[in-house]
Amino acid sequence: MNARDDSALGQFWAEALGWNASVEEPGIVTNLTPVGSVYPDPVAVCVDVITVPEPKTVKNRVHVDLATTSAAHHADLVARLQDLGATSADVGQGDVPWTVLADPEGNEFCVLEPRTIYRDTGPIAAVVVDCTDPRTMARFWEEAMDWTLHEVTGDHAVLRSAKGVGPYLKFLRTPDAKTVKNRVHLDLRPHPGDDQTAEVAQLRTLGATDIDLGQGDVPWTCLADPEGNEFCVLTPL
């Protein structure tokens, strides 16, 4: 997650999720991890908040949905998030049972009404990606991540870890085209013992393309999926 201030935004999300915040590089990167989790753990999709110079200018194409367990939990969570600095956001959602908020830097996210499908995901119900073709995105990301495809239609696609734990990854059809670099993106890490170069080559055969974000000489590889969403392939642990 890009930010103008990784420490402040990292602290917001740590308190919002009930996770630990640790400084990887002062003034540059803040890491957020669930309490008690040991990486790699499919239960958790960890969050890195990274300082960038450019401001947010458009609605994010990637956001998180937060899970709730009851109507009371939903109301309490929304109130707590607003106390932490979240504000109401209108993205054209109309009259819906969930609540749309923005974090202190304007990143949109949703607090969902209780849904049975998200009862065991932890605080993050899903990472949601806007797209023009959910079927194409589902084919690419199912192969890229070794996750299980739960549902795919012309309007949406849903994936989850093959172990059946942790948040979902959801692709939603939207009419809006991608115009700027995403401020929220996925990082992939090969399994321990796997070869990063081979993984990158495989992703290219699936339809990923190389991109230059000004990253320079770094140990990770920056790619874009078939709809131009940036993502990084990290080195194995």
TrEMBL record:
Family annotation (InterPro entries): Glyas_Bleomycin-R_OHBP_Dase (IPR029068), Glyoxalase_6 (IPR041581), VOC_core (IPR037523)
Residue ranges of every copy of the VOC domain listed in the record: 123-236
Domain of life: Bacteria
Pfam families in the cross-refs: Glyoxalase_6 (PF18029)
Protein name: VOC domain-containing protein
Organism: Halosaccharopolyspora lacisalsi
